[in-house]
Write a structure and sequence with these properties.
The complex is a heterodimer of chains A (288) and B (234). Chain A is mostly helical and 288 residues long. Chain A has eleven helices and two strands, in the order ααααββααααααα. In chain A, a hairpin with a 5-residue loop joins strand 1 and strand 2. Chain A is globular and about 60 Å long. Chain B has a six-stranded mixed beta sheet with strand order 6-7-8-3-9-10, sandwiched between helices. In chain B, strands 2-1-4-5 form a four-stranded antiparallel beta sheet. By secondary structure, chain B is of the alpha/beta class. Classes of the chains: A mainly alpha (288), B alpha/beta (234). At the A-B interface, helix 6 and helix 7 of A face helix 2 and helix 3 of B.
Chain lengths: 288, 234
């Protein structure tokens, strides 16, 4: 029982990290209509930006994280302006392929600057809180889940209650009508990259806190992130959160019966099942 | 005074020309209807007025200013609003949010305008919180027209506003269009229900192959033998 609860906790932590990435992938798909394959490496970049703050400039942890979120959002906008926005008129496949190229560039950049080895934000071991029955929770795990939940709540409030949040949903519904209504679609696109960049950086930082930093950390998370986005119906950020929790829990629970090395295979299998059984995701309604 | 004028428009969507010299104008307070056979370029002509067509030659002016090359979001800002025939609501947004999106460029308090739309279409008030995609076809059309009215436009362009609606809703939508017009909004619409539309129009254009064939008052067009036989089904 305790083992099971322990695994549920791991699953929720992993699910929270996946969710932050999957929301971004889903939003980008909804607004720009292409699968953003550089998202994993954007997460990696965010994680290393934070490392540069913590280890390189010895900033306080939270200041470094905040800076990393902002810097990653700026990089995301820069990539969009330099590449994606110019390819917008051609087919989504070209955009997809160019994003694979961006992924390779970002990863190489990280490797060139910070090297190929594992790194951590803080040396030493933090002691977990031990609860009755031997349940262990790390302070970082609480921070990850709390931080992710806080960011998702902020996004929810933005999407439901602000003028540009509603415009973002409108543009995802019907980009032509959004333009006809006078919505400034350029600005919505930039906002999308800001949100996707911030959430990707947070996912990368949380992943780095949960495990270690490594140049392919984000790339390895890309499969579960896409699985989660597809699970929830791609283009629907709320579905992506639900999908991420399912994928996170399923991956961790699979360790009860399968060797841990098969975790990514579980996400892949779930993605295939969903694509065959319900290609529009587990929730009803129109999907892009 | 002519509010919105198109002079000798040629153009299309890339490929060949669909418009072959079409001209039209909408005066303040008018209801103008465009009719014609399928493929005559009726919708294209209207879209050309709204910056949605590549106009190769010709000129569109609004209040004597050239708007031929302006993008739709700039034209909207000048008070010309357009309701497309299909996909004319944001399905996952609530009725109220759809109206808010229509008012996106307004910086002032537009709650009075929302009330006006609700007065015009009372069912929308009840369903204000419901997703537009879940409404019936007639109610969706109300949302679509309501969204376009949020800027309090001087010209409202409607592309087949009654297409696919039941007879009950067709009458209702036409009635409301007349009401909107009575409040000072000029109307330009393309309609399949040509007889009904012409009967309430101040003027009508009959387009054939992207060019003007006839232009007259609504009643005169209805009385015209050739028009009746060729375009209104005898």
């Amino acid at each position: 029982m305790i083992d099971f609860l322990q695994i549920v906790i791991y699953g929720i932590v992993l699910g929270s990290i996946i969710a932050l990435g999957a929301i971004g992938v889903s939003l980008i798909f909804g607004i720009l209509r292409f699968a953003h394959f550089a998202h994993g490496d954007l997460m990696t970049l965010g994680a290393y930006f934070a490392l540069a703050g913590v280890a390189g400039m010895s900033m306080p942890m939270f200041a470094a994280f905040g800076l990393a979120l902002a810097a990653t959002a700026l990089v995301a906008i820069g990539i969009d302006r330099a590449l994606y926005s110019r390819l917008q008129q051609v087919s989504p496949i070209i955009l997809l392929i160019s994003s694979v190229g961006v992924a390779l560039m970002l990863r190489s950049l990280v490797q060139m600057i910070w090297g190929p080895d594992n790194q951590v934000y803080e040396q030493g071991i933090t002691m977990p809180w031990v609860f009755a029955g031997g349940l262990r929770i790390q302070p970082t795990q609480v921070m990850i889940v709390g931080g992710a939940a806080g960011l998702m709540l902020l996004l929810h409030l933005f999407l439901q209650h602000t003028r540009f949040g509603k415009a973002m949903r409108a543009m995802s519904d019907n980009p032509d009508l959004a333009r006809l209504s006078g919505i400034n679609t350029e600005r919505v696109v930039i906002l999308t990259w800001i949100i996707a960049g911030v959430l990707a950086a947070a996912a990368g930082i949380f992943l780095g806190m949960d495990t270690r930093l490594h140049p392919i950390m984000g790339w390895k998370l890309l499969l579960p992130v896409f699985a989660a986005a597809i699970f929830g119906g791609i283009g629907k950020p709320y579905g992506a959160v639900a999908g991420a929790l399912v994928i996170g829990l399923a991956q961790e629970m699979s360790t009860l019966v399968l060797p841990a090395a098969y975790k990514p295979a579980v996400a892949f299998a779930l993605m295939v099942i969903i694509l065959v059984w319900r290609p529009t995701g587990i929730f009803s309604g129109k999907v892009l | 005074m002519s509010l919105l004028t198109a002079e000798e428009l040629y153009g299309g969507y890339g490929g060949g020309d669909i418009l072959n010299g079409v001209s039209m104008h909408v005066d303040a307070g008018e209801i103008v209807v465009i009719v014609g056979p399928n493929g005559a370029g009726k919708s294209t002509a209207m879209k050309a007025l709204f910056g949605l067509v590549n106009v190769r030659s010709g000129r569109v002016t609004f209040r004597d200013e050239d708007i031929t090359r302006l993008s739709p979001d700039r034209i909207v800002g000048r008070g010309v609003c357009y309701v497309p025939q299909e996909a004319n609501v944001f399905p996952s947004l609530s009725v109220l949010e759809n109206l808010e999106m229509g008012a996106f460029i307004r910086k002032d308090d537009y709650s009075a305008q929302i009330e006006r739309v609700f007065e015009l279409f009372p069912p929308l008030k009840e369903k204000r919180g419901q997703a537009a995609g879940t409404l019936s076809g007639g109610q969706r059309q109300m949302v679509a027209i309501g969204r376009a009215l949020m800027l309090d436009p001087s010209v409202l362009m409607l592309d087949e506003p009654t297409a696919g609606l039941s007879p009950k809703f067709i009458d209702l939508i036409f009635e409301r269009i007349q009401e909107v017009n009575a409040s000072g909004v000029s109307i330009l619409m393309v309609e399949q229900n040509a007889r009904h539309a012409l009967s309430l129009a101040d003027r009508g254009y009959v387009l054939v192959l992207g060019a003007n064939r006839h232009e007259d008052t609504g009643p005169n067009l209805l009385a015209d033998r050739e028009v009746a036989e060729m375009f209104l089904g005898g």
